[in-house]
Design goal:
Blueprint: E1 6-7, H1 12-19, H2 26-29, E2 35-36, E3 41-42, E4 46-48, E5 54-60, E6 68-73, E7 81-84, E8 97-100, E9 106-109, E10 115-118, E11 129-132, E12 138-141, E13 148-151, E14 159-160, E15 166-169, E16 174-176, E17 178-183, E18 186-196, E19 204-208, E20 211-215, E21 238-242, E22 247-252, E23 259-263, E24 269-274, E25 279-285, E26 300-303, E27 309-312, E28 316-318, H3 321-325, E29 333-335, E30 351-360, E31 366-368, H4 373-381, E32 388-392, E33 396-400, E34 407-409, E35 415-422, H5 423-477, E36 484-485, H6 488-494, E37 503-506, E38 510-516, E39 522-528, H7 536-548, E40 557-563, E41 566-572, H8 579-585
Parallel strand pairs: 26-34, 36-40
Antiparallel strand pairs: 1-5, 2-11, 3-8, 4-5, 5-6, 6-7, 8-9, 9-10, 11-12, 12-13, 14-23, 15-16, 15-22, 17-18, 18-19, 19-20, 21-22, 23-24, 24-25, 26-27, 28-29, 30-34, 30-35, 31-33, 32-33, 32-35, 37-38, 38-39, 39-41, 40-41
């Protein structure tokens, strides 16, 4: 969102009345003229850069009576303020003006209410003047010496313009960054500050008070490594340089269109380019909750998802498991197996490195002079205090000796990070893989075994079905009158599943059971034993012959049942006499059994 600011515009007659005299000041008659001791700058006047891009003047916010002295883009609507002089103390008197004091300082007075802002004691000559440059820089120049005594680019607000810089100087103890507005209608300093760090290589950070809120990742010649959008296709507008004297400078270039970098009151850094109609964002950070500093704690890894989630690096476990499960990840992770480092690469206790791809490099890195990735690896391996390393194109070798903090994993891009682990961590992984492989193999064996058994059963039942149909077709072809074909379940029900209480006795080729059909008929069932030696042909011949023999002294055959290996003959039951008596033990003629 781009803030919209209301500013005051006056006609020539209104300006005369406010100034208290009839001469229009040169500051608004001549768009690129400066402010001199003889020509103070008042409410209602504007001072333009010679190229007409920027303008200096007084403005108000949210229809307030408070007035601020600031710089904005002259021709862009809604108006966007890029610098404010008196951001903490607005003026309320219509007689307020910006002028040059007797000692040569540039100061803003609130009418009769005193001075609200100044450049400090500069002691300029009488020929000093303030001008607005084509880059949007308000400069205070000593015309006698030609020196720039003061400039707004050295006193940044919430906006960085092309050619203005953020910087640090360790020798002078100087640092220059951006300070967010308190809100979009209050330009006083907010809680967020953007800086570049004196690390080698440097990185951009946003502080929230005294706490880190966001960081870009280390600079790699043309890109920040923590920004996946800065891939090979990205044309970076940024410039970051560091020198051996302990100084660093960061700026960005304009590419033919008005552009600016702003630190919003919510703590977001944006690079915005005006396309003629609106502002387009070409860079933004933080872009999601994984970008918030340290969200997953030490040795935690933030993975962008919906919603984002944290996980521990391999070889690490949550420090507080209950809190971790609740989504409170800030306590981070701890090692599962402590390191035992002797500074060598051999032996059973030797450490190993586990590589994780697509990583935003953690914070608190140290630059190490290595010629290539293998040398970087060896240097870290032989240094027991080195917990991880990464060889990054455009930087070289980075090492970590502190907790890995503020690390996230992208779906693509990012860097390779190698983490030192105890060798047993990889052995544990191998054992787990062996167990998993064994379990999978056993499961597949059991599945295939059941499948083979089922296939065999189907084949047996299919063959039995075919055999049963063949027997039935044969018997039907013999034209045996009154012969019934019984189902096995009907006979099992009739004989109470061939229970001992229903057994009448043994026959020549099997046992005989008494039964009662559902229609009330009493039967005697001769169940041929599988070891009887009576084959299919003998069994079928017996049925045909006995069925065709009808005599009052012969037991009558009602039918048969053939199912699988079971062969049953069903006779009519003779009351008061046992089938055993008539068939096997009596003087009567017996059937062929």
């Amino acid at each position: 969102m781009v803030a919209e600011y209301r500013w005051l515009s006056f006609t020539g007659s209104q300006r005369k009345k406010l100034n208290g005299h009839g001469n229009d000041n040169v500051a608004y008659l001549n768009g690129f003229a400066g402010i001199t001791k003889e020509s103070p700058f008042s409410i209602g006047q504007t001072l333009s850069s010679s190229n007409g891009v920027y303008e200096l003047g007084f403005f108000s916010l949210n229809n307030s009576q408070n007035q601020y002295l600031g710089i904005w883009f002259k021709s862009i609507i809604p108006q966007v303020v890029v610098w404010v002089a008196n951001r903490e103390k607005p003026v309320t008197d219509s007689a307020a003006n910006l002028g040059i004091s007797s000692n040569g300082s540039l100061l803003l007075s609130n009418g009769k209410h005193g001075v609200v802002w100044s450049t400090g004691d500069i002691f300029a000559s009488n020929g000093s003047r303030a001008e607005l440059t084509d880059h949007g820089n308000l400069v205070f120049i000593d015309k006698v010496s030609g020196r720039t005594l003061w400039q707004s680019f050295e006193h940044l607000g919430n906006t960085l313009l092309p050619t203005s810089i953020m910087m640090y100087n360790l020798v002078a103890g100087e640092k220059r960054g951006l300070t967010a507005w308190k809100s979009y209608t209050d330009p006083s300093p907010g809680e967020f500050v953007a800086l570049i760090t004196p690390q080698v290589p440097s990185q951009g950070i946003i502080m929230r008070g005294s706490t880190r809120y966001y960081r870009t990742g280390p600079w790699a010649k043309t890109r920040f490594t923590g920004s996946p959008q800065m891939d090979e296709s990205y044309t970076s507008p940024f410039i970051l340089t560091q020198d051996v004297n302990g100084s660093g400078y960061f700026s960005f270039v304009e590419r033919g269109k008005p552009s600016r970098m702003i630190l919003t009151s919510e703590g977001t850094m944006k690079v915005l380019v005006h396309n003629g109609m609106d502002w387009e964002s070409t860079y933004e950070g933080p872009a999601n909750s994984c970008d918030i500093y340290g969200v997953c704690g030490p040795f935690g890894l933030c993975v962008v998802s919906i919603p984002p989630k944290c996980k521990c690096f391999k070889g690490f476990v949550p420090k507080f498991a209950k809190e971790w499960k609740k989504g409170n990840w800030t306590s981070g992770c701890v090692r599962r197996t402590e390191l035992h480092c002797q500074g060598n690469s051999s032996g059973k206790d030797a450490n190993v490195f586990y590589t994780v791809p697509n990583i935003k490099p953690p914070d608190f890195y140290e630059y190490a002079n290595s010629q290539n990735a293998e040398e970087c690896h060896q240097n870290c391996l032989h240094n027991c205090s080195c917990l991880a390393f990464s060889y990054i194109p455009g930087i070289g070798c980075l090492m970590w000796s502190k907790d890995l903090m503020d690390t996230r994993q992208f779906s693509a891009a990012g860097e390779l990070l190698s983490i030192r682990l105890a060798r047993s961590e990889l052995d544990v992984n191998k054992r787990k893989m062996t167990i998993v492989a064994s379990t999978v193999s056993l499961t597949l064996f059991v599945i295939f075994g059941f499948a083979a058994f089922g296939f065999w059963r189907c084949r047996v039942e299919h063959n039995a079905h075919i055999s049963n149909d063949a027997w039935r077709n044969f018997l039907q072809s013999q034209d045996v009158p009154g012969l019934e074909f019984f189902e096995m379940n009907a006979i099992q029900t009739a004989t109470n599943n061939f229970s001992l209480s229903n057994k009448l006795g043994p026959g020549g080729f099997g046992s005989v059971y008494k039964g009662k059909l559902q229609d009330g008929r009493e039967i005697a069932v001769k169940r041929l034993s599988s070891s009887s030696g009576q084959g299919k042909q003998e069994f079928m011949n017996e049925i045909v012959l006995i069925s065709k023999l009808q005599h009052r002294n012969l037991v009558r055959v009602l039918g048969c049942c053939v199912e699988g290996t079971e062969k049953l003959l069903i006779y009519g039951f003779l009351k008061n006499k046992s089938l055993d008596t008539f068939v096997f033990g009596g003087s009567l003629l017996t059937p062929f059994v």
